[in-house]
Amino acid sequence: MAITERFCANHPQRPAIGVCVMTHKPMCGECSTRYEGVNYSKEGLRLLQQQRAEAKRAGRGGRRRAVISGIVWCLSPALLYLMYLGFLTVADVLMSMLHREL
Ligand SMILES: [Zn+2]
């Protein structure tokens, strides 16, 4: 990422060594924090934490999604059994067709 400004956003007297990937502000060595291979300012890290927390909350998806997945989980043996029955029926039909042609 190109450094568009020469000096740190927090320390105007210090030269910037990089740009925060979140805020795109120039930072000096003291303000820059290397995390997961990229540079963040303190503000940027806070934004990242907020984003992660929101993503986690969205991932949980509230109680409704848990209830739906619970129902699906409970019904899955029944669904598997239905699939098995369907497979048997299809196999039966195919076999009778084959025997009829031969
Ligand atoms: Zn600084």
The average pLDDT is: 88
The ordered H/E elements are: EEEEHH
- Unreliable runs, pLDDT <50, ≥5 residues? none
Strand portion, in percent? 5-15%
**Sheet bearing the most strands, described?**
2 strands, antiparallel
| Number of extended strands | 4
SS summary, helix count: 2
Shape category: elongated
* Approximate helicity band: 55-70%
Instruction: List the quaternary state of the chains.
Output: single chain
Task: Give the neighbour order of strands across the main sheet.
Answer: 1-2
Class per helix and strand makeup: mainly alpha
What is the terminal separation in angstroms?
A: 71 Å
- Hetero groups bound? zinc ion
Computed over alpha carbons, the radius of gyration is: 29 Å
Q: Characteristics of this structure?
A:
102 residues, mainly alpha, two-stranded antiparallel ribbon, 4 strands, 10% strand, elongated, binds zinc ion
3D structure, described in words:
This protein is mostly helical and 102 residues long. Helix content is 58%, strand content 10%. It is built from 2 helices and 4 strands; from the N terminus they run ββββαα. It has helices at residues 42-60, 62-101, and strands at 18-19, 26-27, 33-35, 38-40. The strands form 2 sheets. The chain has a two-stranded antiparallel sheet with strand order 1-2. A hairpin with a 2-residue loop joins strand 3 and strand 4. The radius of gyration is 29 Å and the shape is elongated. The mean pLDDT is 88. The site of zinc ion (ZN) has 8 residues, from loops.
